[in-house]
Amino acid sequence: MSEANKTIFRRFVDEVINRGDLGAVDELLAPSYHQHDPLIPGLPGGREGAKQLFALLHAGFPDLSVTLEDLVAEGERVAARSRWRGTHRGEFLGIRPTDQVIDFENLELVRIRQGQILKHWGLSRISSILQHLGSAQPT
Hints:
By secondary structure, this protein is α+β, with helices and mostly antiparallel strands. The protein is built from four helices and five strands; from the N terminus they run ααβαββββα. 34% of the residues lie in helices and 36% in strands. The mean pLDDT is 91. It comes from Allomeiothermus silvanus (strain ATCC 700542 / DSM 9946 / NBRC 106475 / NCIMB 13440 / VI-R2).
């Protein structure tokens, strides 16, 4: 089960995050999917919130890519350490494009059941990245 769950998580990273295939969200996230620590407050929960999040990220960072550095699984749980990179070429959360490259590490834990991601917890430094982008706004 652990290896199969790692494959599901890799697919999510590759298809949804790296390629921007929002249609894959419905296949890879459970109907009752729950994001425990929303990256962007105010987005709806569940699959719809995930679609909106990744649409916003890809609009602001069209070359967004995630590299999995570590991936560990036990039973239903998969833990990942990843590196996120992208160039701020579109508006993101009201911040005009700065052409700055973001590069941050992310830690995540997901629970996968019956072939779909059911729950997600994460720690990232995106808030400091956003503060940096906001302070770098062109005049």
